[in-house]
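Example record used in the benchmark description.
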Amino acid sequence: MRLFRLGELTPPDPAPEGRARLATGADVPLVAAWTREFVAAIGEEPAEDYTAFVTERTSEGRLWLWEAPDGRPVSMAAVSRAIEGQARVHLVHTPPAERGRGYAAGATEAVSRAAREAGVARVLLFTDLANPTSNALYQRLGYRPVTDHLGVRFTS
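Model output (structure tokens):
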């Protein structure tokens, strides 16, 4: 894993079609399902239900969606609560059928901008080093590498 810190936020160029918006309570079922997909995609064992998890982020204004021009949500990104002037972008996910259109870039830029506008001094995120697409995307948005981490799982 690589830890990145946001330097100067750079909007995606070209900008994806559509717009960013805060997730609402009506989005919780969709976002909970996407969270389950995201957790499985990163190789973790997904929980049965993410409703409470995403409801918290939604009710606190920390989960953003990217909408296609027809109004359909097509990507999401969230940010943690700020602690000691730093917050972490997470849950960046676009369903496979919607990938390749820049939607994750739009959602990530929106959530990063919102964190900065809320006074967060250090906006961070982790990426999987085996995913060159996400690593390149975040650097285009202004994220800079800080350090690498190795996750180790012990089995009995």
